[in-house]
Amino acid sequence: MEFIQELKKMERLHQMVKKRATGPIDVIARKLGISISCAHRLLEQLEQFGQPIRYDARVQTFSYIYGFHSKVDITIATVSDNMKIPYTTSTGQLIHKHSFSFS
Prior knowledge:
By secondary structure, the chain is an alpha+beta fold. The protein has helices at residues 2-18, 25-32, 36-47; strands at residues 53-56, 61-64, 72-77, 97-102. α1 (2-18) crosses α3. The chain starts with a helix and ends with a strand.
């Protein structure tokens, strides 16, 4: 589930960038509980959604250059052979569904 944890951190970072409330890279790393190199990697991954990010040294924050004008929804669900679709057991219970939204 390391991938899911990374998506959660990316979603949190996205909200920080969108609000222009990141601080410098070391503050991002501390807030997310990751290394500085991981923080750089997450910023690069956010840019892959097609929205360039820049650092404004004057106010010490990262921000989207043009604002964020995309919507990215990611849903991950654990499905086993004995489960009915969409993502429920035979008793109708939801199992291990994670949703992430970048908008």
